Amino acid sequence: MRMKPVSMALFTIPEWKTIPFLVHGFGNKDWQQNDFEAHPRLRNFKLFFLRQIHSDILHIVDDFPEDVLTGDALLTDRQDILLVIKTADCLPVLIVDPKTKALAAVHCGWKSTSQKLVRKVVKCLEEHFQCDPSSLLIAFGPCIGKDCYEVGEDVRKEFEERGLTNDVFLPHPQHAGKFYLDLRMATRHQLLDGGAKDSNISSVDLCTCCEESLLSYRRSKQKEGRMLSFIGKSSP
Ligand SMILES: [Zn+2]
Question: How many whole angstroms from 89 Cα to the centroid of ligand 1?
Answer without folding.
Answer: 10
